[in-house]
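Hi Y.,

Following your request, here is the sequence exactly as I used it, all 70 residues.
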Amino acid sequence: IRFNENEIRVMGRNASGVKGIELSKNCYCVGAEIAHSGQDVLVVTERGYGKRTDINEYRLTHRGSKGVKK
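Below is the corresponding structure, written out as tokens. Let me know if you'd prefer a different format.
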């Protein structure tokens, strides 16, 4: 998913954080990064297949969204 980083409020060290993505059962997030317009995202599968996509092709959502499966 892609959302504006301003949707996440500043917290202290002892805070537990906020939800960034809603994951289905048996799914997990392996990383997160701040991306800027004009950059590419490289997605690699468990089997080694990769796809490079312009960040602007990912729709802008709100934090806690489920994402898109095509």
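The mean pLDDT is 78.

Thanks again,
Q.
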